[in-house]
Amino acid sequence: MSPAQTDDAPSLLWLGAVGAAGVALGAVAWALQSPTKQPSPREPRSKDDDMARAQTSAILGPVWPIPAGRLRRVGESVMARRAGSGRPHKGVDLFAEAGSPVLSAAYGRVLRVVDGRTADPKKQEGLARAGLFVDVRALSGWVYRYLHLGSVVVREGEPVRAGQPLGTVSPSGGSGVEHSEPHVHFEIRAADWDRGAGEYGEPVDPLQVLPPRERVA
Ligand SMILES: [Zn+2]
User: Fold this and answer.
1) Is the pLDDT at 196 greater than 80, yes or no?
2) CB neighbour list of residue 146: distance below 8 Å, 6 or more residues apart
3) How many helices and strands (H and E) does the chain possess?
4) Ligand 1 centroid vs 109 CA: distance in angstroms?
5) Is 45 a residue whose pLDDT tops 80?
6) What is the pTM of this model?
7) CB-based neighbours (< 5 A) of ligand 1, an ion
8) Class of domain 63-215
């Protein structure tokens, strides 16, 4: 046996093993991504696959919480201290006419629907400022929050897809404490409300998560 042959045999075996492992990992990755569809080697990637992918992303989001035609302007996004109040702003204000639909930005499950409109601003300032709001937990674990609503059409525990109406923009701008122009205050938090901390998880800048404005449909 020549040295070349002795070298070749193990490396071919090794390549074979790596190849098999790669195929197995690929199958696992595929199964994780699409649990209902098994891979079929005879079925090449088709237009149907592209359509299915597009439909999946349409269901999962993210999409803008206000339809493009109704969105008047985008206000201040996440900041540590907002001019005027000096308080941190943990979301983005999306201005739209009162009564405009507020859509779920992502697929998830409604965590809670809370009406703070009748809360005493002196005793429960945060709740009173939030007004009527909806929290949705997305598949990522992030919590999507929609504050200053005029009405809500979903219930706690209900699954919602991206683009599904959650409610409408309040006529009063929500609490009336800070704003008079109607808008939804949209927040993304890395984790849900922590009773011990008395706070939600770290704010994520929605403008870094939502699709670019030009592509708003
Ligand atoms: Zn705001």
Assistant:
1) yes
2) 65, 102, 133, 134, 135, 136, 166, 167, 184, 185, 186
3) 4, 10
4) 23
5) no
6) 0.73
7) 93, 185
8) mainly beta
How much is the mean pLDDT over the chain? 81
pLDDT at 35 over 80: no
Distance (angstroms) between ligand 1 centre and the Cα of 92 equals 6
Find the 90 Cα to ligand 1 centroid distance in Å.
Answer: 7
Higher pLDDT, 189 or 88: 189
Domain-wise residue ranges, the chain: 1-41, 63-215
Instruction: Compute, in angstroms, the gap from residue 135 CA to the centroid of ligand 1.
Output: 15
Element (H, E) at 8: helix 3-33
Q: Tell how far the Cα of 81 is from the centroid of ligand 1, in angstroms.
A: 12
Q: Nearest-5° angle of CA 204, CA 210, CA 211?
A: 150
- Paired tokens of 87: 């308080």
